[in-house]
Amino acid sequence: MGIDTEVAIVGAGPAGLLLAHLLHLDGVESVVLEARDREYVEQRVRAGVLEQGTMDTLREAGVGERMDRQGAVHEGIELRYHGAGHRIDFAELTGRAIMVYGQQEVVKDLIERRQADGLPLLFEVEDVEVDPDAPAVTFAHEGERHELRPRAIAGCDGFHGVCRHATPDGVLSERTREYPFGWLGILAEVAPSTHELIYAHHERGFALHSLRSPRLSRLYIQVDPHDDIENWPDERIWQELHTRFEKPGWTLEEGPVIEKAITPMRSFLVEPMQYERLYLAGDAAHIVPPTGAKGLNLAVADVRVLAEALTAWLTTGDDSQLDSYSEKCLARVWRVQHFSWWMTSMLHRFPEEDEIQQRLQRAELDYVTSSRAASTMLAENYTGLPYGWEAA
Ligand code: FAD
Ligand code: DHB
Asked: Residue 121: pLDDT above 70?
């Protein structure tokens, strides 16, 4: 069965859902296709930090109301090492802040808005096939095969999606770096032991204390990427957390672990992020290591550019913004790749690290926590460079 639409969006993560909503606000029609069911995408625990620009985008798009009620604005973070904490004051250094609000809450808000607007968002689609040359997207839904013949396709289907692979060989250059560690993340039913995020560097490896709500804590430790979660009973995780966060006079409170998983870490991207009328956005085009919480924010930055470029083309026929979509996004993508790599390198323990490497990490931490110029660099990148920065 054929379905009419202007833009086919593959994937209902933050990138696909926000793109659909921004296009709708500009009067452009789209259909969103999602492989999983609604409950699965709404429960998937991932990132939790929104940059200043991401929170402003959600507010301006009229989907920030619950975020403003339930999220928490943070004006700094702590870097902790050698038993001492050092605050990086974002508000004072940059006048900007971050919002702690779970990615799945952003996803819930966007799904609810899409449904309230009565616009097409199909869950549990199967066998999605993308033809960027036509352009066309075919898929199965509720036992029937369908075809979309849109003007453009947005590949928002994450790292494991199909859109990136629908381009002919050799069109996209892929760049990948795997890190020799992963993050074991837990969600625990306990009041956070801190008001601000703590990034800890310790000889046993990195640890991060984040938050979700007054009664929910999110914690991570660096582990071997090939380790099995079965090797990590809750007591062992807490023990490791206590050790890595140790600071005189400070206590980590424990609580029931309600979710735990190990995620490998990589830097990945494709250049360009487009082929014919197929445009890749978010994790479909790039992955950054999670130190610095950039993945979701980069997805939002991509779809802002894409929504504006698609709207200009579909309403006036001018495709110059679409032509420069990839170049414009990649300027930010490379900046964020560098920041995420830098934070990762400064804070993690690398296998077979020599003493020079350890002293270099320590020198970097001492500099970042003592120099106004260096801490401003961290604060500016962490809270997110303003949109349009790349054109300046
Ligand atoms: P996704 O959120 O991956 O959404 C893609 C969507 O496409 C999914 O819903 C998927 O089901 C759907 N899809 C896939 N294939 C198809 C298909 N063939 N047809 C239709 N739909 C399809 N970032 C951080 O900053 N901090 C973190 O702690 C953090 N933790 C993470 C943990 C994990 C396990 C992962 C995978 C990522 C994590 N990230 C984290 C990264 C961050 O969550 C992502 O950058 C963000 O989700 C990107 O959004 P997206 O919409 O581009 O992709
Ligand atoms: C969270 C994740 C991150 O990668 C990060 O750097 C900070 C916070 C989080 O899930 O809360």
From this structure: yes
Closest to 52 measured CA to CA, from 106, 108, 94, 104: 94
Alpha helices in the chain (DSSP H): 14-25, 38-43, 52-60, 65-70, 90-94, 103-116, 234-244, 295-316, 320-323, 325-347, 355-370, 372-383
Q: Is 106 helix (H, G, I), strand (E, B) or coil?
A: helix
Cα→Cα distances 262→70, 184, 185, 186, 228, Å: 27, 4, 6, 9, 8
Percentage of the chain modeled with pLDDT above 70: 99
**pLDDT tens string 73-119:** 999 999 999 999 999 999 999 999 999 999 999 999 999 999 999 99
**Residue (of 159, 268, 291) closest to 220 by Cα position:** 291
Atom of ligand 1 nearest to the CA of 261: 34
Q: Assess contact for 80 and 200: CB atoms under 8 A.
A: yes
CA distance 168 to 219: 41
Q: Which helix (H) or strand (E) holds 385?
A: none
Q: Is the pTM of this model over 0.90?
A: yes
Six token digits for residue 381: 């990148």
Cα–Cα distances (Å) from 389 to 8, 150, 270, 322, 331, in that order, read: 29, 32, 22, 18, 9
CA distance 186 to 148: 40
Considering the chain, what is the average pLDDT of its residues?
97
Q: Which residues line ligand 1 (CB under 6 A)?
A: 10-16, 33-36, 41, 46-47, 103, 125, 128, 156-158, 160-162, 263, 282-283, 290, 293-296, 299
What is the CB neighbour count within 10 angstroms for residue 362?
Answer: 14
Measure 158 CA to ligand 1 centroid, in angstroms: 5
- The CA distance from 346 to 361, in Å, is 5
